[in-house]
Amino acid sequence: MTSTDAGSRRLLIRDLAQLVSPGGRSAPLRGRELGSVDVISDAYVLCENGRIARVGRMDDLPALSGDIEELDARGLSAVPGLVDCHTHACFAGDRVEEFALRAAGATYEELHAAGGGILSTVRATRAAGQDGLAGALARHAEWMTRAGTTTFEAKSGYGLDRETELAQLRAIRAGGGIPTWLGAHAVPPEFEDEGADAYLEFLIADVLPEAAAVAEAADVFLERGAFDVAQARRYLSACRKAGLSLRLHGDQFTEAGAVPLGIELGARSVDHLEVTGERGIALLAGSDVVAVVLPASALFLGRPMPPARALVDAGAALALATDFNPGSAFCESLPLVCALACTQLGLTLEEALAACTVNAAHVLARADRKGRLSPGFDADVLLLASDDWRHLAYHLGGPVVHTVVRSGRMVWGSPA
Ligand code: NIG
Ligand code: FE
Q: What is the pLDDT of residue 115?
């Protein structure tokens, strides 16, 4: 094996048992197209300067000369590097105490109302400082890489003050993530007396101008005990005016109007949807808003699973994500999420793969270069430790990730 300088960096992944990429050409995929994948047996991928230059069958591999790094992938299969479009990976500390209390019978909403939950992570995150946050994010990003994720979004929302919200967004950006501003995650203790409206006023006047320069999107927790429709509309409208695309946490515990509001404002996605009913499903299906479902979060909290099958059948654009965070989903593994999608949500393996690659890339406005193994796309490749790609979802919690390639470089695992 030889390596070359960045000027003409080439990596040939050869002798793959299978090379698998979502079908269709457009994004997001819906309906029948969501369930189709292209499979090439006995395949190769040629990466050049961080992009995919060619894919094909080994029989058709052209003669290559010059410096080229080779990766022997016999017995392995390749899928696109996974895209996690919804995480809260920038947090300090953990919530193992709360997990133990929940295991002994307390509920997530009770702990939140008692000043624990999100607010306990806010205390730890405020205390961490910029370096502490960068270190925590780096640790969590490495966990995600080991799980096969090559692109991740991460939200702020554990600062809830100007300095820490901005520190979170900067740490996410510096750590290779795509930052989303979730200032409207909870009302912090210092605004307890003045209330949610005063807190939002502060966010819009004092934090938004700088947050908008770092983040790509804004998000809000629209829920009983958090923010209502009028408050979410005000916050998101201001964020949209500042150039951010919009996301919503909605229908996690109550159907409180997130789906109609997301459609009204042209949001990129509404996420969670555990309690979305027939009307919400029909509204999403008739819109461009992506339904992002988070089955690890539903599992972790013992909540009902979101109606993913009904959403897909109705024609909605669906994406899968982890919701990785210390409280409601301490899980960074998209392969595990795919397993849950196939066992709990009624999705096919093909639908699950598309939902955490091309459709997730669409949520992050990157479907033109992430989420497919096609020429011109970023050379983000997940090599699975099986000659059948379906082990991605089949091997529940197992060591399915063999090697991870990002931008044409091995970032996890090792050549055989
Ligand atoms: O997506 N629901 C609101 N926010 C997060 C949980 C955050 C936390 O518990 O720390 C979620 O589940
Ligand atoms: Fe979330």
A: 77
**This model's pTM is above 0.90:** yes
Tell me the pLDDT band of 415, cut-offs 50, 70 and 90. low
Task: State whether 68 and 35 are in the same domain.
Answer: yes
Last residue of a domain, one of 284, 309, 332: 332
Does 389 lie in the same domain as 241?
no
Q: Which residues pair with 46 in a beta bridge?
A: 12, 54
389 and 276 co-located in one domain: no
Do the domain assignments include residue 298?
yes
Q: Which ligand is nearest to the CA of 326?
A: 1
Q: From atom 1 of ligand 1, which residue's Cα is the shortest distance away? A: 323
- Residues 65 and 110 both lie in one domain: no
Are 69 and 100 contained in the same domain?
no
Of the listed ligands, the closest to the CA of 297 is 1
What is the percent of the chain where pLDDT is above 70? 98
Question: Does residue 354 belong to any structural domain of this protein?
Answer: no
Strand pairing category for 217-220 and 401-406: unpaired
Dig out the tokens for 411 from the structure.
């970032």
Atom 3, ligand 1: which residue's CA is nearest?
Answer: 221
The Cα 246–Cα 240 span in angstroms is 7
Whether residues 89 and 206 fall in one domain: yes
Averaged pLDDT for residues 365-389: 98
Assess if residue 338 is contained within a domain: no
| Residue % of the chain over a pLDDT of 90 | 94
Q: State pLDDT tens for residues 56-113.
A: 999 999 999 999 999 999 999 999 999 999 999 999 999 999 999 999 999 988 888 8
Whether residue 219 contacts residue 155, with contact meaning beta carbons closer than 8 Å, is answered with yes
From the list 274, 275, 314, 280, the residue with the least C-alpha distance to 296 is 274
118 Cα–ligand 1 center, Å = 7
Average pLDDT, the chain: 96
Q: Is the CB of 151 under 6 A from ligand 1?
A: no
Q: Which helix (H) or strand (E) holds 166?
A: helix 162-174
Q: Which ligand is nearest to the CA of 86?
A: 2
Distance, CA 344 to ligand 1 centroid (Å)? 21
Residue 143 scores a pLDDT above 80: yes
**Residue 313 falls inside a structural domain:** yes
Ligand 1 atom 9, closest CA = 327
Backbone phi and psi for residue 415, each to the nearest 5 degrees, phi listed first = -65, 150
What does the pLDDT read at residue 3? 45
CB 47: neighbour CB atoms within 10 A?
26
Ligand 1 mutation pick, 85, 86, 88, max ligand atoms within 8 A of CB: 88
Give the residue numbers spanning the domain of 142.
Answer: 83-332
